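Step 1: inspect the first sequence and its tokens.
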Amino acid sequence: MYWHINCLFEIKLKKTYCMKAKLLSLAVVALVSTSAFSQSFKIGFKGGANINKLSGQSFKENFSFGYQLGGFVEVGISKKFAIQPEVLFTQINSDTSNNFSSVYQFKKIDKVQLKYLSIPLLLNYKPIKILALQAGPQFGILLNKNNTLLQNGKEAFKSGDFSMLGGVQLTVAKFMAYARYTVGLNNINDIDSKEKWKNQSIQLGVGFIL
């Protein structure tokens, strides 16, 4: 029995890593293909704060602070438009409500911490040179989770998250600053269907163009 469960776990783990590898490969191929036909090409790094919350009765409604850190590429496709793919390591913190333990029969758990590899793919519209209005999808791959959130061998959070985001970005010389709002579209509750959990976050940060 133990051997059978262990094999199932290994198969699921291999599938998860395979999905991560495919997503990263697709992102690289898309970036190389787009850059070949670009009018301009910029690369840089960025970092900042995630002000986030998990929606659902099991979590408190207040926002908590996390972080984001990574790199980006801006590929110009016309005078006003550009595509900006990014790869970010993000941390999401959330506080559970009193309902969490009663609904899922867990011992008292106050805080949840999730770390994602986030891949936004943004379309930039530049009404003026220093300002870009941004919108696009974001794909999130869960790198780790709070290992105490387990029930009957099930993972509490799904390994993937899909969001839409919108915001603004200011660029002066080689420095940039941005503000975005991200809304999760899929349910990341992997325990049952009692309630839906979705990510929401406000992203504030700065970056530098190399």
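Step 2: inspect the second sequence and its tokens, then contrast the two.
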Amino acid sequence: MSIRSILIHPDPRLKKVCAPFEGVDTAVRKLADDMMETMYDAPGIGLAAPQIGVLQRLFVMDCAGKDATPEPMALINPEITWVSDETNVYEEGCLSIPEQYEEVTRPAEVKVRFTDLDGNVQERQFDGLRATCAQHEIDHLNGKLFIDYLSRIKRSMITKKMKKLKAERAVL
């Protein structure tokens, strides 16, 4: 396993719709392992493949609390098959938009169909933070960022901050 570099917004790869995987093989499992290690190192609760420059439909997540038993999941070719009418508001952040947090309203529960690392198709229902995380990561696979849910002014302010951060990091 290895830690990968996380792309910072604005990067055109973060706005691309990702291609599905044709199957599960050793390379996909290695990618998922690298993504999990990268997510834990960041630290974060979710990471989508485009955030490390891989434009394919895979994300990893672990929404267990700091002192809880880890619950790592890798979801290949995920798709939302159902959303609740009820909504939740969470203050979201993103590893590609560091240190920026804003409230986003999303469905409180979702069902997600995906392929696991053994190549089996599964469907899981998520609620609370897991539902928010799954929707956030699937948005990444569709070229959408959480700031796309914000007003144009807030989005512009955050984008300017990220451009400044990228410029500062480039100097180091």
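Step 3: confirm your contrast with the notes below.
The longest strand covers residues 73-83. The chain has three helices and seven strands.
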